Amino acid sequence: MFKQFGAGAALALFAASAVAADAPLQVSYPGDAMMDCAAIAGESARMDQVIYASNQEIAKADGGARGANMASSVAVEGMLRTGLLGRAPGLGMFANNAASMAKQRAEAVKAQAGERIQTANTRKALLAGLYAGKSCDAPPPPEPAAVEAPPPPEAMPAAAAPADEAAPAPAAG
């Protein structure tokens, strides 16, 4: 029974993570207000990871477009120097079109990643507001100080007794 429950829970968790990975990023979700401080901090860290991954995608797309542009230039230059471009004039256009398609693909990837970064930054701002609103960084309230009551008179030592109750002074004489 317990094994079946554990296997079912693991399967549900796996399915939920697969769906969550495919779901588009949103600024807010219905359960945001019910998150505790640790959950808010964890979600903020996840937004940092989304921003980092999106920046990596942008860098990769830029590199791919630059590489395609360079390959196109080298191919056209090589065909020009060997005389192949004069015998088959459409080859240069083919190389340039391939580079242009790579640039367009890179721009689309950069636009999608930029939208994700903007959404993640906005979500982080919302989470920061929730974190502050729940006083997550506030120090815990101080413990109420215990007030000591004065000891009862019979518990007081003789040296601390009031002067009118002190022992009589010896007679002079």
Q: Would you give an account of this structure?
A:
By secondary structure, the chain is mostly helical. It contains four helices and no strands. It is rod-shaped. The N terminus is likely disordered. The longest helix has 46 residues.
Low-confidence stretches: 1-21
Mean pLDDT equals 75
Shape: rod-shaped
Order of helices and strands: HHHH
Chain-wise SSE layout:
Layout: H1 2-22, H2 37-82, H3 84-87, H4 90-133
Helix pairs in contact: 2-4
Nutshell version of this structure?
The chain is mostly helical and 173 residues long.
Which properties best describe this structure?
mainly alpha; 173 residues; disordered N terminus
